Amino acid sequence: MSTLAWTESLVLNSPKLDTTHQEFVELLNAFGAALDGGGDALPAYHALLAHTEAHFAMEEDWMARCGFEPQNCHASQHAMVLRVMREALRYANELNDREPLTILRCELAQWFPQHAEMMDAALVFTMEQRGFDPVTGLCREPVAAGAAHSCGSGSCGG
User: Which of 14, 74, 107, 147 has most Cβ atoms within 10 angstroms of its Cβ?
Assistant: First the structure.
């Protein structure tokens, strides 16, 4: 059983980000399969966590290059997800409690599509508006730090 299906609704037409997102879904599904298989799911979880850390760091680098405020709601959401993921790993390692990993699997599967369709889509829109190339890291229209809304969306209250 797949934890999260890759669908066209997750495609943001940003090849580097779409590839990273597809890898996230694949790693989440591999983690879910490891849980379902009853074996040790920690190696799959470690792979998912390492990918997620790199994935979020990449997006946050793009945000910085496009002028997002350093403490924006998009990056804050990344930090919250990583805190929860690391805490679930701590429970598994220090307390031998795997239940948070099982819960997190479902929570990530529910969270990710909404995050991608809202916050990541707003990031892609901002990058396009500013002429930012995620491959080269160059921005056609550099802006001063703090010039973007907190998450790149006009609907953000932060």
Answer: 74
Q: Two tokens at 25?
A: 């879904």
Quote the radius of gyration of the chain (alpha carbons, Å). Answer: 16
Q: Domain extents for the chain? A: 14-139
Cα 39 to Cα 3, 88, 96, 116, 129, distances in angstroms: 17, 17, 14, 30, 47
Alpha-carbon distances, residue 107 vs 15, 28, 40, 110, 154 (angstroms): 26, 11, 20, 5, 26
- Report d(CA 141, CA 135) in Å as an integer: 16
Query: Helices marked H in 42-98 — which ranges?
Result: 42-66, 73-94
Single-letter code of the amino acid located at 26:
E
Phi/psi of residue 14, each to 5°?
-125, 95
**Which architecture, in CATH terms, is 14-139?**
Up-down Bundle (1.20)
